[in-house]
Amino acid sequence: MNDNKPHYFEFDDQDVVLEVINLQKHFPIRRHASEVLAGAHPFVRAVDGVSFQLRRGEILGLVGESGCGKTTTGKMIMKLLEPTHGSLVFNGEDVTHTGKGSEIHYRRRVQMVFQDPYASMNPRFKVKDVLEEPLLIHKVGATKAERVQKIRAVMEKVKITPYEEYSERHPHMLSGGQRQRIATARTLILEPSVIVADEPVSMIDLSTRAEILHMMKTVQREMELSFLYITHDISTARYFTDRISVMYLGKIMEIGPSDSVIDQPMHPYSRALISAVCEPVPGKANELKVLPITGEIPSAAKIPAGCRFHTRCLEAMEVCKVAEPELLKVGKQHYAACWLNTDEETRRKSREQAVAQLESRAKTA
Ligand code: SF4
């Protein structure tokens, strides 16, 4: 077992299906003289130390702007990208660097729903072939009749019926919502423990988004699945998830129960994301004080020192420019990385320590 678990891992091992511990992905970039002079780091730190626990039967949201590292995190969990550092623990076993045999077993247990269902299917395959393919790869169902029975059952689960009609269609003969149902069915047919859903409804008409999320939530409950729901849309995350983690520039800024994070956000970035969501009740104003974010998201090749959000935060203090805040407990199972949640004395000491460290590093450089 990994001894370097973060202090905010509260859940017992037997309740947890997946642990992501200090996961990092740094992509090397070509270094030009101008970048060296500007102090640019020669790596894009797309994911810069992400840690969370995913419990059995839980839906955890990973929310943030484009480029915050949430999709890269999902790809590392799916083993589509090799982490630069950190570990993945699945059912108590470290699976970060496994051999091919164990990897196939892991891939069967951890499945992914992609953003674009059309691009994720072979256009020459009929629906029945799309759904049979994972069974053949993982050698599930000894006979054709057994496999057809499984395909029928999973199509009923995602409400694509009758089998005789839809199984003979090609992906282009389905609507966007039907395609995403088939993409979901393809993951469910292997009876996984975990599903990583990366923006599963962002390419679907607004009118069908709620239906698809409702279908996913129903099968998640029926099959007691764990879901990692990756999205930029905090309003659907509220409806769909049990807990939400808010990511910014490769790190988690806040994590906690969805109601708690949405109703009482303790990080200015979460507050800005939530306050930007329209209130669905006509005439009712969003009760959260609107906190606009200033400027653009900085480059992941040049992450600001101190709190990485300080260049855009209207509440930034002196300490924020030099010392990086840790995730601190701010409520029941609720953590936020912001100096506003500490007292003045802590901020003063942290700032002095950070300045002293910077000075000693400058002397030895
Ligand atoms: Fe803003 Fe400072 Fe909190 Fe960062 S630590 S979010 S800069 S107040």
Summary, kept brief:
By secondary structure, this protein is an alpha/beta fold.
What distinguishing features does this structure have?
about 375 residues, alpha/beta, Rossmann fold, eight-stranded mixed β-sheet, four-stranded antiparallel β-sheet, binds iron/sulfur cluster
Model description:
By secondary structure, the chain is of the alpha/beta class. It has one domain: P-loop containing nucleotide triphosphate hydrolases (Rossmann fold). The protein is built from twelve helices and twelve strands. It has an eight-stranded mixed β-sheet with strand order 6-7-8-3-9-10-12-11, with helices on both faces. A four-stranded antiparallel β-sheet has the order 2-1-4-5. Helix 4 (127-137) packs parallel to helix 7. The longest helix has 21 residues, at 344-364. It is elongated, with a radius of gyration of 22 Å.
Give the cofactors and ligands.
Answer: iron/sulfur cluster
- Tally of alpha and pi helices: 12
CATH architecture: 3-Layer(aba) Sandwich
The biggest sheet amounts to:
8 strands, mixed
**Taking all residues together, what is the mean pLDDT?**
90
